[in-house]
Design a protein that fits this description.
Shape: elongated
Strand content: under 5%
Radius of gyration: 41 Å
Distance between the termini: 84 Å
Structural class: mainly alpha
Helix content: over 70%
Oligomer: single chain
Mean pLDDT: 77
Number of strands: 0
């Protein structure tokens, strides 16, 4: 029955005839205010959870998807096991296949289609026209879910609704309505789509005649029909009431939220559409629904908002769902947007690569500057040594000339001061420069890898090369003594009392202890130790030899004894 008389079709004439009555006008105003208050309340409830919070929840839910799917598989196994323990009559087989079909119909196309065919085969063996129709409707639903429009129409066109109960008619007409709506969405052109929408609305009119008026299906299909027919305000009210007015299953919530998102997409309200699609995608995953378009549509909206990271996350999940279910039209749709998202990701990588090259160039220039400074300082030190030698020779040769000797001594004193200043500056500045650059390079690589460009800029602008060396050594001392709190005591136990190391009040470790602290940490190479402590290799070897010679144990056993010192 494609023509039904509904109060909403008569409403305009009714209003025109009653607007002359002041009482009716007051009633209309009262209902309008109540409706606006309802919309405001629903909007507040909807806005309680932000898109950012829902995106984080979706990320967690996607990672938990295998768990939900495993629960679904376990439920299917339990159904199969329970069916095997019961009688094996044709009627029981039909009921068994029906239950398994319901589990598979939005989970996996191949299995759903197989059990729908088994339903049809069993119904024919029973020669039951009602069950045959029931099975054909299931086959049609499965074919439509997989995007096989021709096969769907071939199957559904064979069904005769004569003498069928109202529940079967409702299911058949709603499926036909969905068929034409999906076909219109798939074609998406100004010529064929309006025709398909009109046909789909007619079938929904017939289906609504048979669905219970207060049931979910009746209210959902009214909203879907209105949104496809352009009655957006009525559709909005219907879907809002569904979302906030009754307890919905995860699958029902996903249906309502995903369908309602079309309203906001058409009105250009992207944020509200994303909010609804996030809720729908989360509900789909929790209900192990693989035949879904919510997460695919969500990926498209996120891509348009330049949120490539989350768009990529969603499109990959959409691909996984489409492949798992076997939905052909979903694979085609995903294939249209996937290259765009991947292309945008490549562009981001290229931009990051350019930033990396820029900062690598800056680091290289700084490194070259340090090398130039080191060369200048080495030349100055060389000059100072030559000057010292000249002054020393003059001092021995010209002892008789007191005035000249005094001048030479004064020059030598000045030269020694200059030498000390330059050498001190060289060792301190050079060590700080090299150490800071090394840490800076590592930190920069880490920040670039994490794509924290603003932190890189902040680090570059706040370089301080002077105050880090002493703090570095002290931090090393603290960290080491936290691991080896008895290191000093154990170290001194290897020496006579007069040869034991005594620390100053403000010292945690000294150079002797730091050398063997590094050895205890596994750094045995003298060159590496010298580089860390900013000493020459010979100096480190001299320290080590001197300390070993004072110990109570043989030199070749000393380092092993150090390695035997235990941590906390």
């Amino acid at each position: 029955m494609l023509n039904q008389n509904y109060s909403d079709k008569l409403l305009p004439d009714y209003l025109i005839s009653r607007l002359k009555d002041s009482v009716a006008r007051r009633n209309i105003m009262k209902y309008t205010i109540a409706f606006l208050l309802l919309l405001i309340t629903c909007y507040r409830l909807h806005s309680q959870v932000t898109n950012e919070e829902l995106m984080r929840e979706l990320d967690v839910t996607i990672r938990q998807a295998p768990t939900y799917d495993a629960q679904k598989q376990q439920k299917i196994r339990q159904v199969k096991q329970s069916l095997q323990t019961q009688n094996n009559s044709l009627y029981h087989q039909f009921d068994s296949y029906s239950r398994l079909y319901e589990e598979y119909k939005i989970f996996n196309y191949d299995s759903a289609y197989s059990y729908a065919r088994l339903l049809q085969q069993t119904a024919r063996q029973l020669n039951d026209s009602l069950r045959i129709t029931y099975a054909k409707i299931r086959i049609g639903f499965t074919l439509l879910s997989a995007g096989m429009f021709k096969e769907t129409l071939d199957t559904l066109s064979q069904i005769n609704m004569k003498n069928m109960p109202e529940s079967v008619r409702a299911e058949y007409y709603s499926l036909m309505g969905r068929f034409y709506f999906d076909l219109g969405d798939f074609d998406n052109d100004p010529y064929h789509t309006p025709v398909y929408v009109t046909k789909g609305s007619m079938y929904f009119d017939s289906a609504l005649h048979y669905f219970p008026e207060n049931g979910f299906d009746h209210r959902y299909y009214i909203g879907l029909k209105n949104i496809k027919s352009g009655n957006r305000s009525t559709a909005l009210q219907t879907f809002r009431q569904l979302l906030n007015g009754q307890q919905l299953t995860d699958h029902q919530l996903a249906l309502v939220a995903s369908t309602l998102s079309d309203f906001y997409i058409q009105n250009g309200n992207t944020d509200s559409a994303i909010n609804l699609l996030l809720r729908a995608a989360i509900a789909d995953i929790k209900s192990s629904t693989k035949e879904t378009s919510a997460i695919f549509n969500l990926a498209g909206l996120l891509y348009k908002k330049k949120d490539v990271k989350n768009a990529s996350l969603c499109i990959n999940q959409a691909i996984a769902d489409a492949v798992f279910y076997g939905a052909r039209q979903r694979k085609v749709q995903v294939g249209s947007i996937l290259p765009l998202i991947e292309s945008e990701k490549l562009n981001m990588v290229e931009n990051q690569k350019k930033v990396l090259i820029t900062y690598a160039t800056i680091v290289t220039l700084l490194f070259i500057l340090v090398i130039v400074l080191a060369i200048v300082i080495f030349r100055q030190v060389k000059k100072l040594k030559l000057a010292q030698k000249v002054i020393s020779d003059a001092h021995h040769k010209e002892q008789a000339i007191n005035h000249q000797l005094a001048e030479v001594n004064e020059k030598l004193s000045d030269a020694n001061k200059i030498k000390e200043e330059y050498i001190g500056y060289f060792f301190n500045a050079n060590a700080e420069f090299f150490n800071k650059i090394e840490r800076f390079k590592k930190l920069l690589e880490q920040k670039i890898s994490d794509r924290k460009l603003e932190e890189i800029r902040f680090i570059v602008n706040n370089i301080d090369l002077r105050k880090e060396k002493d703090e570095l050594l002290r931090n090393f001392d603290k960290a080491f003594l936290k691991l080896f709190p008895h290191f000093v005591t154990a170290f001194n136990a290897l020496f006579r009392e007069e040869d034991q190391t005594a620390l100053k009040d403000d010292e945690l470790l000294n150079t002797d202890l730091r050398i063997f602290a590094l050895i205890r940490m596994g750094i045995h190479d003298s060159e590496k130790i010298a580089h860390i402590l900013q000493y020459s290799v010979n100096t480190i070897n001299t320290y080590k030899t001197k300390i070993k010679n004072k110990s109570l144990v043989p030199n070749e056993e000393f380092e092993q004894r150090i390695m035997n010192i235990k941590t906390v």
